[in-house]
Amino acid sequence: MERKLTALLAVALVAGCATAQPQFVDQGQYAKAVHDNASKFTWPDGRTPDLDVLAEKSGPGPDKAPAGSERIVLEMTNSCAWYLGWDDARKRGDRTAEQKALKVMDEVLPKFSPEDPDGQRYARETAAKAKNGNGSMATDYVANNCESVVWK
C-alpha cells in the first residue's frame, strides 16, 4: 500500500499544481484531516478502519503531504472495506449484506479519484465481475492495497 500510496500522493500533488499552488500539511494536520473526512464514507459492518493507525501509516511523518491527500487514502481504504465486506458476506451467506456491498461497489467506488481514470475503470470492472460471482479483481485489489489496514 505504501508504494501505491506514494504514487497516488504524487498524482494528488500534480493535480493540485494544475489548479493552484498546493498547500502542504504536517503529520498532525494530516491525521486531523483523516479523522474529519472519514465520516464522509460509509463502511460495511466489521470493516471500519482504525483511523489513528491509518493516519500514522499513510501520513507524511516528519515531512509534509499535499493538503487533500487523505482523500485518496480514505478512498483506497473504503474500497478495501467494501471488497472485503462483500467477500465476508458471501462467505457467511448474508445476501442482504452482499447486495449492499455490490451496490456500493457498483455505484460509489467507480466515482472515487476522478484524477485516475484507470482506477475508476478497474472499480467498474471489479463490480461487474463481482455481480457475476467472480471476486478475482476484488481479491487482487485487497492483496495489493489493504495489507496494512487495521480494522476496528
Number of helices: 7
The span between the termini is: 19 Å
Low-confidence stretches: 2-18
Q: Structural class, from secondary structure content?
A: mainly alpha
Considering DSSP H and I runs of 4 or more, what fraction of the residues is helical? 55-70%
Strands across the major sheet, in which order?
Answer: 1-2
Q: What best-fitting shape do the alpha-carbon axes yield? A: globular
Question: In words, what does this structure look like?
Answer:
- The model is unreliable at 2-18 (pLDDT under 50).
- The radius of gyration is 15 Å and the shape is globular.
- It is mainly alpha-helical.
- A two-stranded antiparallel sheet has the order 1-2.
- It is built from seven helices and two strands; from the N terminus they run H-E-H-H-E-H-H-H-H.
- It has helices at 2-19, 27-38, 51-58, 69-92, 95-107, 117-131, 136-145; strands at 24-25, 65-66.
What is the structure about, briefly put?
Helices cover 66% and strands 3% of the residues. The protein has 152 residues and is an all-alpha fold.
